Automatic annotation (TrEMBL):
InterPro entries from the UniProt entry: AsnA_fam, Asp/glu_Ase-like_sf, Asparaginase/glutaminase-like, Asparaginase/glutaminase_AS1, Asparaginase_C, L-asparaginase_C, L-asparaginase_I, L-asparaginase_N
Record bears the keyword Hydrolase: yes
Domain L-asparaginase N-terminal: 12-201
Family of the protein in this entry: Belongs to the asparaginase 1 family.
The keyword Hydrolase is annotated on this UniProt entry: yes
Active site: T20
Asparaginase/glutaminase C-terminal domain ranges (all copies): 222-338
Keyword terms, alphabetized: Hydrolase
Protein name from the UniProt record: Asparaginase
Domain of life of the source: Bacteria
Species of provenance: Gangjinia marincola
Length: 347
């Protein structure tokens, strides 16, 4: 780790998509709803003290992140593409509930990034006395503005929450109550905020500086995520995979990649693979990795061609599958690419 003092004069674009950070309590219903973004900035006058030039842009209708759709991912990607050359860094304000999903998908959509894209939000609205929004927003802006000899220090999609910056496609929301809402159990934090901003340089993604930013705008959402559970019956499993348009399956397995060895199950998975529907094995544990073949309960999966998701999160597996399905026809190549780390999402 090295301590950095925030560098002055970076240009930052703040993109507000919605989420608790910009919500207020509706006096009639008591429920939280989004409010005007300008008001959000009025509530953090400290932003003016930062030595960065900050511009803001907001979704026309800010949303709770539970309502995020693929079209919204495309809108964020399009904004980044449009303003990529104009700004040194981008901060995306987003609800925490599905932040790891959106940020993971964006990491695959944005190839050859050479600038920071920092997702952040908060557990309490900005107007709340005990809010975590101010620290999250201010430090995210500082991280997005960090430069070393004229170049961005962070060159990837990050997620900043409660004093830690993570590689976004390594994160999962783990707590609905604590300010420390996210974890990255298979990869260290990229930076920590204390008295100083400490940057974990060896953990940062190394960009290929010769290649230009490529924005992938196609995502195939005809995917199902199936969590294994004791008691899963053939009928229920059939129903889960019966959509005619189904293009891919993410199987959340037990421990290091294990499932039932029941013949009906293996036969059905084999059929899917034969029908050109890739099946990816990810673990339902928050930490650790799939190791197909370690137990008898995963030997068969390996043999029939199930893809090894290694230590990828379900959120990142989903984004990676959406991205690869729409870019690769050849299923052998799909397997190869899925098992390769594209944006540092797996070890
Ligand atoms: N429901 C909110 C959202 O994800 C929660 C949050 O922002 O933390 O938009």
């Amino acid at each position: 780790m090295s301590n950095e003092s925030p560098v002055i004069n970076s240009t930052i674009l703040l993109i507000y998509t919605g989420g608790t950070i910009g919500m207020v309590k509706d006096p009639e219903t008591g429920a939280l709803r989004s409010f005007d973004f300008d008001e959000l900035l009025l509530r953090i006058p400290e932003i003016k003290l930062l030595d960065h030039e900050i511009d803001t842009i907001s979704f026309e209708h800010p949303i709770d992140s539970s309502d995020m759709k693929i079209e919204d991912y495309l809108q964020i990607a399009a904004l980044i593409e449009t303003y990529y050359d104009q700004y040194d860094g981008f901060v995306i304000l987003h609800g925490s509930d599905t932040m790891s999903y959106t940020a993971s998908a964006l990491s695959f959509m944005l190839e050859n990034l050479k600038k920071p894209i920092i997702f952040t939000g908060s557990q309490l609205p900005i107007g709340d006395l005990r809010t975590d929004a101010k620290e999250n927003l201010i430090t995210s802006i500082q991280l997005a503005g960090l430069k070393d000899r004229g170049r961005s220090v962070i060159n990837e999609v990050g997620l900043y929450f409660e004093y830690k910056l993570y590689r976004a496609n390594r994160t999962t929301k783990i707590n609905a109550e604590h300010f420390e809402a996210f974890a990255s159990l298979n990869y260290p934090a990229l930076a920590e905020s204390g008295v100083h901003l400490s940057i974990n340089h060896p953990a940062l993604f190394i960009p290929n500086r010769r290649k230009k930013l490529r924005v992938h705008k196609k995502l195939d959402q005809r995917i199902v995520v199936i969590k294994m559970f004791p008691g899963l019956t053939p009928e229920v499993f059939d129903a889960m995979i019966s959509a005619e348009s189904l293009k891919g399956i993410i199987l959340e397995t037990y421990g290091s990649g294990n499932t039932t060895t029941a013949e009906w199950f293996i036969t059905k998975i084999k059929e899917c693979i034969k029908n050109n529907i890739p099946v990816v094995n990810v673990t339902q544990c928050s930490g650790g990795s799939v190791a197909m073949g370690q137990y008898e309960t995963s030997v068969q999966l390996k043999r029939i061609g199930v893809i090894n998701g290694k230590d990828i999160t379900t959120e990142a597996a989903l984004g990676k599958m959406m991205h690869l399905l729409s870019n690769l026809e050849d299923r052998e190549r799909f397997k190869q690419m899925f098992e390769t780390s594209l944006r540092g999402e797996m070890s």
